[in-house]
């Protein structure tokens, strides 16, 4: 079947609406009759005993105040239900909700906040990974992946290097904050409009905490103004607070966090502190690696164990390591529970490995690209991961070769050396990093999806899936698939808002797999519909689509169908740390060149070239957008976004004035993104998932900074934290100057 829409630049279904302002977000839904504003009093302490909560008898305009006592159940959590929605006797992070306020006006909300009296007794918080390790404050057990004998191989290795690699957290900085509107119905039924990647989890948590059946709660998601993982597990909190108000007051209730509050109270990307030891030959071949990952999980489990699992399965990245020991421990601290964030631990694992590669190159005084080529996964040999999944359809060697040529790596490396030999005021760095990103949820049962396709009497089509639209274009991709499968004009296909009423027990739109899982499920439904219609067509060979649909209806042929998909071949076993967790890998390489001011540490990205294997894109224009946007978001993580807290755990960088996301001036002066022409044999229409992997391509920028520091560290292996902020770079430069080791 020829694809009329798949593989083409069909415009994003919200392209017009976003530009004209017609697109509707939660806060754009017109106010409802008797609607209440919902807000909450949160813990001002990272760790404190709650001695008493005194609620005022009456505040003008305030309709209700609720505490943990008003909930049927108070525990939530996507993996372990260990987190109270409303703190009762102890609060464990700043921003933890304690009292829910429902009021007619903002002024009344503020008056209520002043009138509520909570007595605390401050306790000592744990605010860093080191403190958590010292206190043995962990979430769950240390887990491991082991292959071969790392200790023995390290003992006999020609070279061994070890160190500690710190990488920082990241705020999601979605433009639409957490938000929900809940409308009460009959007999406890609730209709919830939620800005969430995971309508089913919002439904489940609301039902459980309020003592309802899931069947009484309908959660709808039209779209999100960005999510990036921040609305995978943490959209539940605002939605449940609004649901409590709606259920008890029988009035519509809306909650919308303001930006600063959102940044204070929600969890972020996990910071990691990783210890590593790696053995290698004089030729640069890695013989063994030991890595101990420690993540800051915050106060509750949230998705931390799964994030750690992804870090661990990305610890070796694109490189074959015969003897590997990878340990992962989640630390419990008194920060908001850290959560999913684009890449989901993958960036933290991959950055650790790419740092190791740069250090091996520095130790041997070699070009880091040579080290990468020597250790890159092979096609037929040296192609099993430490967890024993075979890297199939490996395009990494091709990507390295093609990008090296396309971006003129050799000549530019020579030019960087020449520049650094002559400049006393600036240094340059150049590095090409890689990514191999495993596609599938690393929790097996989440890899399923269902779809509902209805054909109406006039031949128009509605498709509903569990996929949620957060700007990434999944609705457009599903629409293209459905139009092609049914062989109808695109204009006849509507993708409906996501609703738990249409699609039950869905997974979060996450793990880059929204289009894969839901695209396959939609196709499954369409194929059965098309089969039935093809059968009708044999009797009416001249009928066009609308006539055919009418004829099928008259013959009482069902014109609705439900599709299902479960990812084949995947398996994982934590007791052995082995399995086949991913259906396939999205791969890529990126080469970045940076310029650093030696007196201020100021960083400028001169050029970045990204070359990926994203299969045959379902929609090249949308995928190009993902490559560009993902890279820029990664650029923020590796260079400018720095979460700073007081020694009491108060977030200082809680607005764009103090938290620096990239703007147009921070982009590479020369920036190209492209992909190779290759089909993915195991995924929908030959495509590959593209949501998260491009974020990791920005690690090349960080590696280029590390490379630049080699020119001023006089043979020492330079150290560098992530993010490489101007301040961090200046501190490293100053350190080398003070110790008199500056070369150049
Ligand atoms: N990615 C995103 N969300 C998840 C995953 C994952 O791999 N596993 C469980 N939840
Ligand atoms: Mo995403 S970080 O898989 O929501």
User: Which regions contain 5 or more consecutive residues with pLDDT less than 50?
Assistant: none
With strands numbered from the N-terminus, the spatial order across the biggest sheet is 3-7-1-14-11-12-13-22
Q: Give the DSSP E fraction (strand runs of 2 or more residues).
A: 15-25%
Name the hetero compounds present: hypoxanthine, dioxothiomolybdenum(VI) ion
Name the overall outline.
globular
What is the tally of beta strands? 28
* Computed Rg: 27 Å
- Which bin fits the share of residues in helices? 25-40%
Main sheet overview: 8 strands, mixed
What separation lies between the terminal Cα atoms? 62 Å
Which structural category do the helix and sheet elements fall into? alpha+beta
- Mean pLDDT level: 97
What does this protein look like?
With 744 residues, this protein is of the alpha+beta class. Helix content is 30%, strand content 24%. The strands form 7 sheets. An 8-stranded mixed sheet has the order 3-7-1-14-11-12-13-22. The model has no long low-confidence stretch (mean pLDDT 97). It binds hypoxanthine and dioxothiomolybdenum(VI) ion. Residues 197, 229, 232, 340-342, 344, 510-511 line the site of dioxothiomolybdenum(VI) ion.
């Amino acid at each position: 079947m020829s694809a009329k829409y798949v593989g083409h630049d069909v415009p994003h279904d919200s392209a017009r609406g976003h530009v004209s302002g017609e697109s509707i977000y939660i806060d754009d839904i017109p106010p409802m009759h008797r609607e209440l504003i919902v807000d909450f009093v949160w813990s001002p302490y990272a760790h404190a005993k709650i001695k008493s909560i005194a609620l005022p008898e009456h505040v003008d305009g305030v309709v209700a105040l609720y505490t943990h006592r008003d909930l049927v159940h108070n525990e939530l959590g996507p993996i372990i239900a260990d987190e109270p929605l409303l703190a009762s006797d102890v609060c464990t992070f700043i921003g933890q909700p304690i009292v829910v306020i429902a009021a007619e006006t903002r002024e009344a909300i503020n008056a209520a906040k002043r009138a509520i009296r909570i007595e605390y007794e401050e306790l000592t918080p744990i605010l860093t990974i080191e403190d958590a390790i010292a206190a043995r404050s962990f979430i769950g057990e240390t887990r491991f992946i082991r292959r071969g004998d790392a200790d023995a191989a390290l003992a006999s290795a020609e070279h061994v290097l070890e160190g500690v690699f710190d990488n920082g957290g990241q705020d999601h900085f979605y433009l639409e904050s957490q938000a929900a509107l809940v409308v009460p119905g009959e007999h406890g039924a609730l209709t919830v409009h939620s800005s969430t990647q995971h309508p089913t989890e919002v439904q489940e948590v609301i039902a459980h905490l309020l003592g309802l059946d899931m069947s009484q709660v309908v959660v709808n998601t039209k779209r999100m103004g960005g999510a990036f993982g921040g609305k995978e597990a943490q959209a539940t909190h605002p939605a449940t607070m609004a649901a409590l108000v709606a259920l008890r007051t029988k009035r519509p209730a809306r909650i919308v966090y303001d930006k600063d509050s959102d940044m204070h109270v929600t969890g972020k990307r996990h910071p990691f502190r990783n210890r590593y030891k790696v053995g290698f030959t004089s030729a640069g071949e890695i013989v063994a690696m030991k890595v101990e990952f420690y993540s800051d999980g915050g106060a509750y489990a949230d998705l931390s164990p799964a994030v750690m699992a992804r870090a661990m399965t990305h610890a070796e990245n694109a490189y074959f390591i015969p003897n590997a020991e990878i340990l992962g421990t989640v630390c419990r601290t008194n920060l908001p529970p850290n959560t999913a964030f684009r890449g989901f631990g993958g960036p933290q694992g991959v950055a650790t490995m790419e740092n190791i590669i740069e250090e091996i190159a520095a130790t041997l005084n070699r070009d880091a690209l040579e080290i990468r080529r020597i250790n890159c996964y092979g096609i037929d040999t040296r192609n099993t991961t430490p967890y024993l999944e075979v890297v199939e359809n490996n395009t990494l060697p091709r990507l390295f070769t093609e990008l090296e040529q396309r971006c003129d790596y050799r000549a530019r490396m020579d030019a960087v050396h020449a520049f650094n030999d002559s400049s006393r005021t600036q240094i340059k760095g150049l590095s090409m990093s890689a990514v191999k990103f495993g596609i599938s949820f690393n929790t097996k049962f989440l890899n399923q999806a269902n779809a509902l396709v209805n054909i109406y009497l006039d031949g128009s089509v509605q498709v509903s899936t569990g996929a949620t639209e957060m700007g990434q274009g999944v609705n457009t991709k599903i629409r293209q698939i459905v139009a092609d499968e049914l062989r109808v004009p695109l204009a006849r296909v509507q993708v409906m808002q996501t609703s738990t009423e249409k699609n039950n027990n869905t997974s979060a739109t996450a793990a880059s797999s929204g289009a894969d899982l839901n695209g396959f499920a939609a196709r499954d439904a369409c194929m059965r519909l098309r089969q039935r219609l093809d059968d009708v067509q044999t009797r009416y060979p001249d009928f066009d689509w609308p006539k055919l649909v009418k004829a099928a209806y008259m013959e009482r042929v069902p014109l609705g169908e439900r599709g299902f998909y479960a990812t084949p071949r995947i398996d994982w076993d934590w007791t052995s740390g082995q399995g086949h967790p991913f259906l396939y890998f999205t791969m890529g390489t990126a080469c970045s060149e940076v310029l650093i001011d030696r007196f201020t540490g100021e960083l400028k990205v001169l050029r970045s070239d990204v070359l990926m294997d994203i299969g045959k894109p379902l929609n090249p224009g949308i995928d190009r957008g993902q490559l560009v946007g993902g890279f820029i978001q990664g650029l923020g993580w590796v260079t400018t976004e720095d979460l700073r807290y007081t020694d009491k755990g108060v977030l200082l960088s809680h607005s764009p004035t103090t938290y620096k996301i990239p703007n147009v001036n921070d982009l590479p002066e020369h920036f190209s993104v492209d992909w190779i022409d290759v089909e993915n044999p195991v995924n929908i229409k030959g495509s590959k998932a593209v949501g998260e992997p491009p974020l990791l391509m920005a690690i090349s920028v960080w590696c280029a900074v590390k490379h630049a520091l080699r020119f001023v560290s006089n043979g020492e292996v330079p150290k560098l934290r992530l993010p490489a902020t101007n301040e961090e770079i200046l501190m490293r430069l100053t350190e080398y100057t003070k110790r008199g080791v500056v070369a150049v």
